Amino acid sequence: MKPADPAAVRKSRIFLLLIALVFAAPMIVAGLLSWGGWQPGTKGNGEPVLPQRNFVDERLRVQLADGRFYAWRDSEPRLTLVALAGPDCATQCLATLTKMAAARVTLNRNQSRLRLLYLGAPPVNDAGDGMRNYWQLGQDVDGKLAGYRPAAPDSVSALLVESNGTVLSLYRAGFDPSGLRKDLQRVIK
To answer: Could you tell me which of 134, 1, 149, 163 has the C-alpha nearest to residue 71?
Structure first.
């Protein structure tokens, strides 16, 4: 048997390592990007709520206008968009609430998979503007959501809550309702 040429062995090993690198490189790059916090295609308009909260586990009680308590878990899987109004909800606040309700309508056949819940003092002239046709009105009994409520007058923030009570994202006062609409269309399919 003829002894192997050391140069040929070295060349074969380098070639084998290059082939392995071609397959491993994408996994290494994906791992580094993920470790750095980048996730492809997951750019939402809302902010993540950290630490993550679950309203069922926290026993967050919301009393509706009719005296019943809001059920975070429903008979069917549906998300809840919670609107939290700042003091003196009037023109600007009502315009944002209307756009939020319109975002639900744009879900077409899937609009039944989103519930709208308004927490706080009802807007000025809420009976005359048809708000009660779209929104369930209620109060945060224990004040556990006070940190998400805007302090600026005539403003509104929102929380998107999964059907199991887990908060998916926060939309701070001044958010873009069209961005919320895009997020809803991504989440509710």
So the answer is: 163
| CA-based nearest residue to 183, from 155, 164, 159 | 159
| Closest to 159 measured CA to CA, from 169, 149, 150 | 169
User: What confidence tens digit (pLDDT) does each residue in 93-128 have?
Assistant: 888 999 999 999 999 899 899 999 999 887 766 555
The reported pTM is: 0.75
Beta strands in 102-172 (DSSP E): 114-119, 136-140, 156-161, 167-171
Under DSSP, the state recorded for 71 is: -
* Cα within 13 Å of Cα(33), Cβ side: 10
Look up tokens 């009802």; give the residue.
Answer: 122
Distance CA 77, CA 137 (A): 21
| CA–CA distance, 56 with 161 (Å, rounded to integer) | 11
Numbers of helices and strands, H then E, in the chain:
3, 6
